[in-house]
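[User] I wish I could look at a protein chain and see how it folds. I have put the entry right below:
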Amino acid sequence: MASEKLQLLQNAILGGNIPQLVLNTISYALDMRSSDIHIEPLENTVRVRYRVDGVCRKIVEYPTNIHPAVVSRVKIMSNLKIDEQRIPQDGRSTVTTRDGREMDLRISTLPTVNGEKIVMRIQDKSREIPDLPGLGLEGNSLRFIEESIQSPNGIILNTGPTGSGKTTTLYSCLNRLNKIDVNILTIEDPVEIQVDGLNQSQVHPDINYTFAFGMRTGLRQDPDIIMVGEIRDKETVDTAIEASLTGHLVLSTIHTNSAVETLTRIDNMGVQPFLMASTIECIIAQRLVRKICEHCKVEDTVDPSLVEHVKKVAESVHPDEKVDPALIQGMKFYRGKGCEECDNTGYKGRVGLYEVMKMNNDLRKAILRRADTLEIEEIAKKSGMVSLEQAGVIQALKGATTIEEVYSVARKMED
């Protein structure tokens, strides 16, 4: 089926049929489970790449002489100015494919030396938001999040790089809280997934409708729970703290490398330690790693020094986590050989790695005396936090992902 779609796309390029070329590019991207489509003009050709499971793959090329027509077609779809080619533009479009799937596309154009580059971010409206265990959450991490979202007030922060699934995790939490007797308000940029029962609002910074302004006015809407797309500045974090102190549960994202570093980042924004200690309920750090393709999974040999290191990491996991001792004793690692199912990459799909730090009195005391990140991390691990590296090692030993994938996103613990 997918190869048929690729054939259709190649035929549209050969025939110079621009509307068909654009539609087939989107349609094939869906079949490939792609999150982004990159249309990039190079010196002598234009290449189309898809980001699949977090990695860009080249799909086709087409001649440069039809590129202006492709750009115009995409701009018409997303209500952008066709005649403006000197500045970047952002737009969105809704597309229904032949097989009846409805897609939201976020489209961004960028002038480059060879012409305009287009990136389309695909949001599949028909996609179900998985429940928390379906995202890869288990053990302490799952328990900490479940306990935190039941708090009547406080701040839950989710951190990680762009495209690490933060928004999906927050929506999964909101799905659990989405009951008839609570009023949930979200302020996002943009609204990525529309959910029945939530009051979702999109910010417009160009007319001063920012996250902070949206939150301040949102408090007059009598919400119980507020989700804010991202905490970027002091004003937003101050408003979030204010909201949590007045009895609201606030969920948001922030950009840092780990759960503990989030505290440093908020401290750097000028928030007093006593406010951090009294309002932050839980900090989630997450990454996505590619899953090994089940169809071509084979055992892998790993460098002995790495095996030793992995053993140490696995043994340092908090006892509450109940890691199967047999996994650590007979350590086995796996990889995908590459087959038709996974397009010869050895990977298919992704799973989340989570580091969840739930506040307790020991951590609060450490924050109040401005303890350094290493000390706070030690206290958090003693309280049951599983680090990103430990979470990754557990997934690798279970055969869900490869050890290379784990260390492509997690920092190595010092021996």
User: Anything to note?
Assistant: Residues 88 and 326 are 55 Å apart (CA to CA). The longest strand covers residues 280-292. The two ends are 49 Å apart (CA to CA). The first helix runs from residue 2 to 15.
